[in-house]
Amino acid sequence: MKQETLIAGFGGQGILLMGRLLAEAAMNEGYHATWFPSYGPEMRGGTANCTVVFSDEEIGSPIAGHYDVVIAMNQPSLERFGPLVRAGGLLLINASMIPVAVDRADIDVLRIPTLEIAIQTGNERVSNVVMLGALLAARPAPTSDAYESAIESVMGEKKPELITANITALHAGRKAAERPCLTTVKGAP
Amino acid sequence: MKQETLIAGFGGQGILLMGRLLAEAAMNEGYHATWFPSYGPEMRGGTANCTVVFSDEEIGSPIAGHYDVVIAMNQPSLERFGPLVRAGGLLLINASMIPVAVDRADIDVLRIPTLEIAIQTGNERVSNVVMLGALLAARPAPTSDAYESAIESVMGEKKPELITANITALHAGRKAAERPCLTTVKGAP
Amino acid sequence: MPRPLRSSEKRLVKGNEALALGAIASGVECFFGYPITPQNEIPEILSDLMPKLGRVFLQAESEVASINMVYGAAAAGHRAMTSSSSPGISLMMEGVSYIAGSRLPCLIVNVMRGGPGLGNIAPSQSDYYQACKGGGHGDYHSIVLAPWNVQEMFEFPLLGFDLADRYRMPTIILADAVLGSMLEPAVVPDVFSPLMRMEKDWATTGRGTRSHKNIINSLLLDPVELCAHNELLQAVYREARREIMVDQRFCEDADYLLVAFGIAARVALSAIRLLRKEGIRIGLFRPITLYPFPTEQLVSAATHVRSVFDFELNSGQMLDDVRLAINGHCPVEFYGKMGGVLPGPEELAGEIKKRIRNEGDIL
Amino acid sequence: MPRPLRSSEKRLVKGNEALALGAIASGVECFFGYPITPQNEIPEILSDLMPKLGRVFLQAESEVASINMVYGAAAAGHRAMTSSSSPGISLMMEGVSYIAGSRLPCLIVNVMRGGPGLGNIAPSQSDYYQACKGGGHGDYHSIVLAPWNVQEMFEFPLLGFDLADRYRMPTIILADAVLGSMLEPAVVPDVFSPLMRMEKDWATTGRGTRSHKNIINSLLLDPVELCAHNELLQAVYREARREIMVDQRFCEDADYLLVAFGIAARVALSAIRLLRKEGIRIGLFRPITLYPFPTEQLVSAATHVRSVFDFELNSGQMLDDVRLAINGHCPVEFYGKMGGVLPGPEELAGEIKKRIRNEGDIL
Amino acid sequence: MSAVSEATCQEDVECVFERPDAMSDKPLHYCPGCTHGIIHRLVGEMIDEFGVFDRTVGVCPVGCAVFAYEYFNFDSIQASHGRAPAVATAVKRCDPRRFVFTYQGDGDLASIGMAETIHAAARGEHITVFFVNNGIYGMTGGQMAPTSLIGQTTTTSPAGRSEARTGAPIDVCKLLQSLPGVAFLARVPITSPKNINTARKYMRKAMQAQLNNEGFALVEFLSTCPVQWHMTPIDSMRYIDSTVTHTFPPGIFVDRVDTSGAPSASSCVEKEKSLP
Amino acid sequence: MSAVSEATCQEDVECVFERPDAMSDKPLHYCPGCTHGIIHRLVGEMIDEFGVFDRTVGVCPVGCAVFAYEYFNFDSIQASHGRAPAVATAVKRCDPRRFVFTYQGDGDLASIGMAETIHAAARGEHITVFFVNNGIYGMTGGQMAPTSLIGQTTTTSPAGRSEARTGAPIDVCKLLQSLPGVAFLARVPITSPKNINTARKYMRKAMQAQLNNEGFALVEFLSTCPVQWHMTPIDSMRYIDSTVTHTFPPGIFVDRVDTSGAPSASSCVEKEKSLP
Amino acid sequence: MEPVKIDTRRCKGCGLCVEFCPRHCLKLVDELNPIGYHPAELHEPGACTSCALCAEVCPETGIEVLRKRKKKS
Amino acid sequence: MEPVKIDTRRCKGCGLCVEFCPRHCLKLVDELNPIGYHPAELHEPGACTSCALCAEVCPETGIEVLRKRKKKS
Ligand SMILES: Cc1ncc(C[n+]2csc(CCOP(=O)(O)OP(=O)(O)O)c2C)c(N)n1
Ligand SMILES: Cc1ncc(C[n+]2csc(CCOP(=O)(O)OP(=O)(O)O)c2C)c(N)n1
Ligand code: SF4
Ligand code: SF4
Ligand code: SF4
Ligand code: SF4
Ligand code: SF4
Ligand code: SF4
Ligand SMILES: [Mg+2]
Ligand SMILES: [Mg+2]
């Protein structure tokens, strides 16, 4: 079992945190895990992405040329990384920011209106964790528990009050992804 | 024909100039020639020495481990470089500064009271050229003419009035060396 | 005391953080450095922890000042370190040469980035020559350690200081932008034991009741003395060969050897797994000490292989040392990317297969 | 105009003086440097002549400033140079990496002295690694020229600038304390021809009527771009191999080859004369371009020899390149002295005879 | 923006504000509200106003403004960290007809580049320095600068800058003031349209100093770094006015510029202190 | 000299002047009449007088004084060119009980080491700097220093130093004066027994500043370089008094030293200007 | 004529123009622009005097200001 | 008792002591010392007041000055 995931978007969208939570959750579940970020020159804005690898074997490369999962939080990221999803892989699209469709028959594509869902949960800044919920729905590991304790330990370090909001967002995202009709509500071409 | 000469003494004794004149004289006579200086950290005083090589062949090394001629202008130089004269070579000793004797039977040793001779010529600062005169007497090349034109071109660059004084000194040194009785006038142990 | 850490239990740690905590655990007494990406977490963490532990943290005005502060602190007998990335390290070359010439132990961390010039902040290994061959003037060397995971980022400061002290020479930890920025589970200590200062009888601590004065100095005007001093240095470097460390995987039955260090060795390990799945018997030879280089170890690992592949994130710098070791015994092939591009395992595996095929040497 | 020089007639010239006059003859437009022994005559002479010729001389506040001034002047399209000695050159490593990364031509003179650290002011060749392998960060190279007499000290600035301009990379002249300080007859020019400024369409001269702006820069944040840029650099370095220069003497019938550069090659030549007198057929292989290194030339010169000797005034730095070229084809022996000791020809000849005898290989 | 301008600025309508010709259309990479962008535009305006576009060579620093060359249309050189004054010195000396300026941050100019700054000033190099003091290392993520205020929390002074440990903030204008090679030296906060206009006046002098061959000229801008200060852009400006200016009083420190005809700015620091 | 002293300084005879204990017997390598030697002796006297011998670490420069460690009996470090303040900073910070001083020439301190000097002063490092300004690069053979006088002929200013080309000489005391981290700052010519005694007073303050943890202290000595100035030792001293002091006025520039009890030197530069 | 042209693709929603407009004619919109910010908009064109203070403080040089010509020049 | 002891092996004949002796008791001798200089000598011991100004200015720390003790301390 090995999964190579790439998460990409604007700086400020909480991209790196998503990766961190995924890696932490994988570790909580006993996997070897690595997280590696990269960003543009801007301190705010600009692009940001990170690669998360988890595996039951010692991890060699923390980066990859192709991915089992790509999460595109904005359009440039979709354009750049969408083609790099392996056949049989998963592409998660942030429908709130990306109007265009993707036609690859060899992979699963889920469009999640993360912003709208986040607003529904009462906190527009948790779109990123909404998206993680979708990943949770679409892939067997890590488990919900592993994500929750990841959220607890990562958020707990800084602002404990955020834990509930994020766990709510996680499950809202999961539910949305389980009802795929919902996932194309907006902006489908 | 190749001659490797080392000239050594205090800084301030005109050591480097002696070497320069010898190299220039050798060049004037059509030899390949090199001159290489080395000195201690002091700007004034301290030790100074230089190696002059001339040869009718293109010169390889501008330095040597042993020498055909060593000119010792003070005692530390004699101690350090005296033993490096090749068998059959020549050791010129500045008797004005060096009281001790040398007993090497395999080389020629000449003791020249350079200061006294220089004073006799009326200029106590030309001891170095007096010593060159002794070298001129003891070795066939370069010739007297070559030395004289070396003195002219080197001194001429800076102070033309020194030319006469130095040519006088050269010949005073040459004469002294031709009368070896004179060369041990002072400080022989 | 710094925030307590969960003991002997793995947690996700960033490479730079692990290095900073490893430095503290190694008993570093003082840190002098100047900000530069991608190693900023190191000074940032130390700026917090060092004063709390009663140790010295100082952000220097430049890398030139940093390395000269390290020189001063090391001269006075302290475990002293600095950390920077490629352009900043280049500014330290005169200082490193002085440190090596004066036989001072210290730790220098280079979290390498793409060069030359300002380049970029992506992972690179293009300072191998500088670190291993002597980027400064003169015949000197540093011990060069190449970690490949976050756990080693934590452990190598202690190892590095111990070696530096044993041989009285600088140690360089050569990491890169990936190792510095990546998170990985690692065991980091619970508590930091109090400082144990080593007695260094040569150090300029202030004379105290010592019977003689100590001088730290690399000036030896007399060539014969400086030559003797250099011979001593060379003897020390020969001595230090006993500290050579290598990591070898899948080498027993290998027909091919893949040589790589640091982060490149991890890509190599993944590529090897891919290749082995296709039945290609290839092993990994990972030098951990880049200087002294594991020449004899490589010779024996390569005795029975058909060819050796060298993979680096540069134009082929360690390649010199690999080829010098192999010395014509078998073909040595190189693959590398420069400027911060980190090829994936598939790419590397594909390249190796192609070369094997080209050689008509496919099994 | 500077003082008139006797034309095409040999006169006794000091190496540093020859280099300074050669720089002027090469059309150098500006000199930036900081005093250091044993190269002080170079800035001293240029401080006198450059202003008289309407060119720029500036004593910089440091070597760091010097190399960055060279960077600026070269960026703006001028023939720019600096000169220093080992410790000063170490301080320039970041700047040299920037210059190479930005593809700027310039001339850097290193009159090497004993190291490491402050060392001494005696002749040495221990900055070979730094010059040839890249003392700064990143995958870059400079053209490295090694003169061996005063005449070449005069001629190599022009050669160096021409090569630098042709390949848009820095040229380093690697001399040493002997070459800098010795006097030797050499031909130096009568008059200095007026400056001929080259048009450099990439230079930041000020935009004038050009249709596009020029940028001088080594920053390429995107790894793919920086990688492509590095590949361009490597391609240029391969191109530059066509400029390789070697001096071979007594090689036709040689049973042994003695490899040496710069001043060491002169000692080698004298030693060869001694050895030949004793019937030992040994030839001299003197790389003039140290980078690019004459690998193919050495391979063919060594095809029929029994063994190769390498003689350097260091711990064996060019030795790597010699061994990489020979690649196990025949034994490679090394003799060297560090710290400013310059062995005489007898010593070197004796050492070679001893090694030949040890090999049981005496003729 | 010229396309827009051509279409709209015609007939009965005139443009009262548009991007200077010296600036390119490339969007800036700075964080929202960062005043680097305003200072860039002022530089562009100056180049236009003095008509030196074709002979200008800009020297960019290492710092957030490292990409400044992207935003201008004239020739530029990207200098190594702190060495822009050395680079500019050479560019100017090799051809004094050029107009040469550096654009440098406080880490660049006052920390690693201190020697190059002082020496260029001491030699009276005919260059113009635009010095963007935001009291922090912006680009590398908010470390302490020599100009960070006492008590300021940064990533390398997490407990607030301590005067006992790191000394007082370095006042570059005060430091350079004693050097006879300096022709013009002034400080201005970029915190309001009024101050931006003052900046313009100082910059004109600093340009003129070079064109008159009068010596080294430097304008220090108190600039915001909303991201590393953890403040909104507007609060950042207020913070400069309310706090930063106590440590770094604005005004003219040296003025030896001959602006014959044009009214010369006051050469007294005290008078200028009343800026908002 | 202690052997002599023991033999002679006894009974009815007393030694009124002998070599300080902190100094070794090694003959100095300086040129005849070079005042480096006098300043060395003053340093030795201070170390004796303050009783800090066993905790002193001296930091030597690159310059004629590179061998200073040979002439003292306490521990010393030979720093790379210009970096002595950085070296001293680390030695002091790692153990504040030490007494740490640097001894630096003008090329070392004011040219290549400018950044390290300013930053050590700005941080208020608790170190003492003995700054030997002889207006030239002595060791390397008489090149121009940043402190060379206008018109001074040196090997790299063969036509005399030109202000237009190289700026005015750098006045280090004036430059550092504005930094709050500086506790003591003074300049004194080494040109007569009287001035040597003034030097002693300043040095005491500069020692005390460190022992009181008051900050950075620097004494600048106007020192002769007879050889590179091409003057006799005595003419060199006269030249300082008659000429050098016009460019570099002696006196105290900063004095924040608490010498409770001891009479404190005047803190006014003007008053001190009347030195010979 | 719109007196103020805001380049909404460059605008980073910093709010400086909004703050410094003496006539309070500007505001940030709710929608995100393609680079992820809430750009500024002239919501009271009538009140605008073309004083250009908004443009003066815009760090993106993202505002162009027009004005009716008073007399033919 | 010679009030002034000059270490003639260290003396470099710079003449500073000669110049600054208020009683003109010192001079440089004609002979060279082993390091090649004409060293200073106390030629008027009687005039010497043990004021130590000569020692104060000697760059070689080559002068030691003695004085008759006034009273037992
Ligand atoms: C030699 C070197 N050291 C350090 C760095 C890393 N670095 C990049 S920008 C910077 C500081 C930027 O601060 P400042 O000059 O104040 O500019 P700002 O970003 O605040 O505008 C540093 C230290 C570098 N690129 N090169
Ligand atoms: C990095 C470096 N640059 C240059 C030198 C050469 N150098 C040795 S001493 C010196 C200058 C000495 O002048 P100063 O500091 O004024 O001391 P002085 O000899 O006049 O007492 C220089 C440039 C060096 N050793 N190292
Ligand atoms: S980090 Fe600060 S200085 Fe840099 S662009 Fe962002 S706000 Fe501006
Ligand atoms: S060169 Fe000058 S400073 Fe150096 S020892 Fe000689 S006189 Fe003194
Ligand atoms: S031009 Fe003036 S009034 Fe109009 S929007 Fe801008 S700031 Fe407001
Ligand atoms: S000032 Fe410029 S960037 Fe900021 S909100 Fe207004 S238009 Fe947008
Ligand atoms: S002690 Fe005074 S009087 Fe005696 S020799 Fe010395 S200076 Fe002259
Ligand atoms: S001052 Fe000292 S060195 Fe000079 S002459 Fe007198 S005793 Fe000799
Ligand atoms: Mg800043
Ligand atoms: Mg000096």
Your description of this structure?
The complex is a heterooctamer, with two copies of chain A (189 residues), two copies of chain C (363 residues), two copies of chain E (276 residues) and two copies of chain G (73 residues). Chain A has 189 residues and is of the alpha/beta class. Chain A has helices at 15-28, 75-81, 114-120, 127-138, 144-158, 162-178; strands at 2-10, 32-39, 47-55, 67-72, 85-94, 108-112. In chain A, strands 2-3-1-4-5-6 form a six-stranded mixed beta sheet, with helices on both faces. Chain A is globular, with a radius of gyration of 15 Å. Chain A starts with a strand and ends in an 11-residue tail after the last helix. Mean pLDDT of chain A is 88; it is low at 182-189. Chain C is α/β, with parallel strands linked by helices. Chain C is built from 13 helices and 15 strands. In chain C, strand 6, helix 7 and strand 7 (170-176) form a beta-alpha-beta unit. In chain C, helix 1 (15-25) runs parallel beside helix 2 and helix 10 packs across helix 13. In chain E, the strands form two sheets. A seven-stranded mixed beta sheet of chain E has the order 3-2-4-5-9-8-10, with helices on both faces. Chain E has a two-stranded antiparallel sheet with strand order 6-7. The longest helix of chain E has 19 residues, at 193-211. The mean pLDDT of chain G is 93. Helix content of chain G is 14%, strand content 21%. By secondary structure, chain G is an alpha+beta fold. In chain G, the strands form two sheets. Chain G has a two-stranded antiparallel sheet. Classes of the chains: A alpha/beta (189), C alpha/beta (363), E alpha/beta (276), G alpha+beta (73). Chains in contact: A-C, A-E, A-G, B-D, B-F, B-H, C-D, C-E, C-F, D-E, D-F, E-F, E-G, F-H. At the C-D interface, helix 4, helix 5, helix 6, helix 9 and helix 12 of C face helix 4, helix 5, helix 6, helix 9 and helix 12 of D. Strand 9 of chain D pairs parallel with strand 3 (75-78) of chain E. One magnesium ion is lined by residues 63, 105-107, 134, 136-138, 145 of chain F. One magnesium ion is lined by residues 105-107, 134, 136-138, 145 of chain E.
